[in-house]
Amino acid sequence: MKVIITCLFLFVFSFFEMVSAQETDKVVLKSEPHKINNSFLKDFFYEVHKGSPYEYDRERERIYLEQLSRIEIIPIPYVENNNLKNLSSIDKMNKYNTSLSFDISNFDPVKFNFIKYSFNFYSTSDQFIRVDNQDYIIHILPYTNN
User: Fold this and answer.
1) Which of 111, 123, 124, 127 could form a disulfide with 140 if both were Cys (CB 3.0 to 4.6 A apart)?
2) 15 and 79, same structural domain?
3) Which pLDDT score is estimated for 53?
């Protein structure tokens, strides 16, 4: 009888552990994507264009806001995946500011300066870029000419 009770207890315990693990997985999968804070746009622009003749204006802001509307930074635990580009492999926009920092060791999804990178914002398909060895994927939604 003791063996049956012990087995029943272990079964019930295992069942609740399995349900709990599935709930944890759901939380990870349902994490809301981060959005870059658009109040930094002007600072992002001047960081990249330091020393250039270009000025931040309404048209440039409109373009950046449209691009921002299609960027999501999704928290996903890091796993080795050779099918995803790493952020470090994306061309850098350092023509004007050659001392531009591309350090991603302290990656902050809300303050990520997407203007530093030569992303293809006119691709008609989804793009997924892994922030090197970190728990973030940058998702760029496809361009649609509305």
Assistant:
1) 127
2) no
3) 94
Assigned domain for 50 exists: yes
Rounded CA separation 112/98 (Å): 19
| Distance, CA of 146 to CA of 130 (rounded, Å) | 28
Give the phi and the psi of residue 130 in degrees, each rounded to 5. -85, 130
What does the DSSP 8-state code read for residue 142? Answer: P
The residue-averaged pLDDT of 10-18 equals 40
85 has pLDDT over 60: yes
- Characterize the bridge pairing of strands 85-86 and 71-75: unpaired
Residue 146 lies in a domain: no
Arithmetic mean of pLDDT over the chain = 83
Torsion, CA 40, CA 100, CA 92, CA 118, rounded to 10: 20
Structural domain boundaries enclosing 25: 1-30
Q: Are residues 45 and 117 in the same domain?
A: yes
Tell me, yes or no, whether 119 and 57 share the same domain: yes
Q: How far apart are CA 6 and CA 76, in angstroms?
A: 38
Judgement on whether residues 5 and 46 belong to the same structural domain of the protein: no
Tell me the residue length of the chain: 146
